[in-house]
Design brief:
Elements lengths: L1 H25 L5 E2 L8 E2 L15 H7 L3 E8 L7 H4 L13 E9 L5 E4 L1 H4 L4 E5 L5 E10 L4 E6 L20 E6 L7 E12 L13 E4 L11 E3 L5 E9 L8 E6 H14 L9 E5 L2 H6 L8 E6 L4 H5 L6 E5 L2 E2 L3 H9 L6 E8 L2 E8 L8 E3 L3 E4 L2 E5 L2 H7 L5 E6 L3 H4 L7 E5 L2 E2 L3 H9 L4 E7 L5 E7 L1
Antiparallel strand pairs: 1-2, 3-4, 3-6, 4-5, 5-8, 6-7, 7-8, 9-10, 9-12, 10-11, 11-14, 12-13, 13-14, 15-16, 16-17, 17-18, 17-19, 19-20, 21-22, 22-23, 23-24, 24-25, 25-26, 25-27, 27-28
Length: 475
Amino acid sequence: MKRLIGFFLVALAGGVVALGAYKLTEKKHPYYSYNSEQSVPVRNVSYSPGPAFDQPDFEMAASISVHAVVHIKTEFQRKSNVYDDFFNLFNFNQPMPNQAIEAMGSGVIIDQEGYIVTNNHVVQDADNITVTLNDKRVYKATIVGADPSSDLALIKIDEKGLPFLAYGNSDDVKIGQWVLAVGNPFNLTSTVTAGIVSAKARDINILGSQGSVESFIQTDAAVNPGNSGGALVNLKGQLIGINAAIASGTGNYVGYSFAIPANIVKKVVDDFMKFGKIQRGYLGISYSEIDDQFAKDKDLPSVRGVYVQKIVEGGAAEKAGMKKGDIILQVQGMPVNSKSEMQEIITQHSPGDKMDLTVYRDGQQMTIPITLLSENETLTATKDNQIIIHGATFQHLTDAEIKRYGVQDGFKIVRLDNGLLRNSGIREGFIIVAIDKQLVRNTDDLKEAFTSKKGGVLIEGLYPNGMRAYYGIGL
């Protein structure tokens, strides 16, 4: 017994020594504190579980969206290959001679009266459009409007009481939030994949000559052939984007997909339903992004904002008092640091809309109210015998150039910004000599050709290397 008591006392003494040693060293480790009710030290950091630790619930969003996403099959006698290299979202069946080409995509019902939004490249030039609902009902569809510059189209089927998706506010979308991509890949009924928002306002230069508005929502939700035109939804089941493209070298999903923000979609759809065409507002400026080297070259205080390179004479920006060299920091209170962010905001507005621009000029920050104009309202003569029409700056040929190119008269495109002409595939340096077989001799001829004609015009001209070219442009 004495021996047992001796062992107990030794153990007790050892415990006291250990506790004392810990107390002596405690001050040397302020990162820890001792909880007398526990047998281990705990970090001196507060913790409370939050929403980030909750498991995301996709069921409600999926159940809402699958019934509002449709399968679209199109038939073409001739299919443009402009988008093939970029989107790779079509599932083509190789046609026999004289057989129509078939392609497929997805669409989203946005109104119970049968209005469906999809990508322009899904239905462009289609001779027949067939829509299959998730419940397998099949309808013929007609095109209400198409906008290559945003790669959006509105089609309609003759049916009522359809399930549809409500718009979410894509400006509120946050990087890292959960989203669902819903479409019809591989000719299946509505299929749902999940991912997160990887980035916003992405300009990936995939529309090229076919478009000008690129400010995509990037996600890692799996998107495959047939998903083009499908829905990107948040966990409330609200439409926050229209899936448009994937980043892939194979044509199938490998990591990233891109969607057109819902706020742009809503503006385009509303214009088609109310006016039958796009009502787009224009600032009347050319601008560039600011990086570190640009800021050093221009002696700018920071890399924030976008730099105004040119003011269109008679445009909205000039009328509001903006100047070349201004740095636009915010539009309607929203920070802008890239061309795609500027595009996304401006594209959501119409001619006549008023907005406030926060501008940095000569060491001071100021707010400039501005009223957007239509594209035609910005057509105006400029200095140096130039004229700006549809985003292109034309300059009348000199006598020496007329002799060099062997033409009677004409105008050279000396600068080409976003607009109808660039969308048609025309490049800088092109010389217009005739429109609808009528010679172009002065600025009045140009204005008349582009503002008075309905439907479209045929442009004839050549490039400085002597290559002749013809372009048909829809107006």
